[in-house]
Amino acid sequence: MIRMAMTVLVVGLLALQGGCFDAQVNVPDVYVGGNRSAVKGTTAPKTATHAECRQELESAYQEIRRLRDRLDDREEKIDKLEDDKKKLEKRLDRYED
Q1: Mean pLDDT over the full length of the chain
Q2: What is the pTM of this model?
């Protein structure tokens, strides 16, 4: 009898950890630092399988890489524009003298 109860308990825990049961839990907001806004747990996509979770995570990482590349491009553009501004200011100073 005890073996049967332990077996059912172990199988139930494995099924729960494997994602076979959907536990409806309110996910709290996560605060990630001093001045950043809260990350809402409700914005996380619903997934049914581990493979689906991996796919969502990979697409999130791709989006992060894309945004970082865009940021790098913008920073390079800012540096170039600042250099151009300095050159034009020097030119203007020469004409004013």
Answers
A1: 81
A2: 0.48
